[in-house]
């Protein structure tokens, strides 16, 4: 269970008016912890945020005491419930190495699944009968082989994928777009309870958050970020599934698609992905071949403190480690010796300052003049 004082600081920071994910990362890069950020004097905060936001950080946001109490009570009410924050040692490495790792996650179930070999399966909320069957069959076979199936608990393909994994006695993770104590759609309540018992429910949204349309596209980055690859079963040309596929591709992960009838609108998105380079698969065995061995990749997390900047103040230590060629986060961790979450936050600050560019495949490059 997360320490109540630390959890309170995280909730204070993330629910303060004017503080979104990007601003929170900027504050963490500057002050290294939420406790230090919310305790900082207004003058110091002005380096990162505007004056109104700096003033609001000085006091807890509306409802803070109730939100903290509800979260602590939720954690204590049943085993398998916890809040995971970006600085935790067991934060999943694949998600940490994605473009926009969530700063805080609510978990219910088997948290060890976050480090297992994961495959995202996404698709239409209104699939054809064949698409629904494909989702269930592919998930059942691949979960039976040891893959953890990650999806979004939505109607259609998502629900069929979760159900297929459970039918095989396998593992599945549902990343939801509501508070973890809500189920959407309501028809998936029994499915959600089964996943909580044998798999894992994940949300970045506060307890009680209803199903708001704006919250579902951002959760797709978590589905893609946790997974070695993303399989699109059926998707229209304009769909959240294609957003997930794009995010997976930008993170250097595999994108796979099942083809369908040229007359079916639910297959048009899959055909577009295949034309753009996604792997065409028509059997679970082909998915396994494309993704490679099941063993998860071990990514080191260093605990050393960040080194000081150049005494003359002329060289940022991360820019010095970066050089002028594209480098991965792993390489920079080795060169700097910084903890991964601290390095990620500092890279974001450099990116926002226009000194570093983020490239496809999870690479970073120093910009000209930096």
From TrEMBL:
Where does the signal sequence lie? none
Return the InterPro entries for the record. DprA, DprA_WH, DrpA_SLOG, RuvA_2-like, WH-like_DNA-bd_sf
Q: Where is the Smf/DprA SLOG domain?
A: 83-291
Q: Where is the DprA winged helix domain positioned along the sequence?
A: 303-362
Which superkingdom? Bacteria
GO BP terms: namely: DNA-mediated transformation
By its UniProt entry, which Pfam families does this protein fall under?
DNA_processg_A (PF02481), DprA_N (PF21102), WHD_DprA (PF17782)
The family this protein is said to belong to: Belongs to the DprA/Smf family.
| Name of the featured protein | DNA processing protein DprA
- Which species is the source of this protein? Pseudaquabacterium pictum
């Amino acid at each position: 269970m997360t320490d109540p004082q630390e959890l309170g600081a995280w909730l204070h920071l993330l629910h303060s008016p004017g503080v979104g994910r990007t601003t929170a990362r900027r504050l963490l890069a500057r002050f290294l912890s939420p406790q230090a950020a919310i305790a900082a004097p207004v003058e110091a905060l002005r380096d990162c945020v505007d004056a109104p936001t700096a003033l609001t950080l000085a006091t807890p946001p509306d409802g803070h005491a109730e939100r903290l109490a509800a979260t602590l009570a939720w954690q204590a009410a049943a085993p398998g419930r916890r809040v995971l924050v970006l600085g935790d040692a067991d934060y999943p490495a694949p998600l940490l190495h994605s473009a926009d790792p969530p700063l805080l996650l609510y978990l219910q179930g088997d948290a060890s699944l976050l480090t297992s070999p994961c495959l995202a399966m996404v698709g239409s909320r209104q699939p054809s009968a064949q698409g629904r069957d494909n989702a269930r069959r592919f998930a059942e076979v691949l979960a039976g082989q040891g893959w953890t199936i990650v999806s979004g608990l939505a109607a259609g393909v998502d629900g069929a994928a979760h159900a297929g994994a459970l039918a095989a006695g396998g593992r599945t993770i549902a990343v939801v777009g509501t508070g973890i104590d809500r189920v959407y759609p309501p028809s998936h309540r029994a499915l959600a309870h089964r996943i909580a018992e044998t798999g894992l429910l994940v949300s970045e949204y506060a307890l009680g958050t209803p199903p708001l349309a704006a919250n579902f596209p951002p959760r797709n980055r978590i589905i893609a970020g946790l997974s070695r690859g993303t399989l699109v079963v059926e998707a229209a040309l304009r769909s959240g599934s294609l957003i997930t596929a794009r995010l997976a591709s930008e993170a250097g992960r595999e994108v796979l698609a099942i083809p369908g009838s040229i007359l079916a609108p639910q297959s048009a998105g899959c055909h577009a992905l295949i034309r753009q380079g996604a792997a065409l698969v028509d059997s679970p065995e082909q998915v396994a071949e494309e993704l490679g061995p099941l063993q998860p990749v071990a990514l080191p997390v260093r605990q050393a403190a960040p080194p000081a900047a150049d005494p003359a103040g002329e060289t940022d230590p991360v820019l010095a480690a970066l050089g002028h060629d594209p480098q991965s986060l792993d390489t920079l961790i080795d060169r700097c010796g910084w903890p991964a979450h601290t390095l990620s936050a500092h890279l974001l600050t450099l990116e926002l300052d226009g000194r570093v560019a983020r490239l496809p495949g999870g690479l970073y490059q120093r910009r000209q003049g930096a």
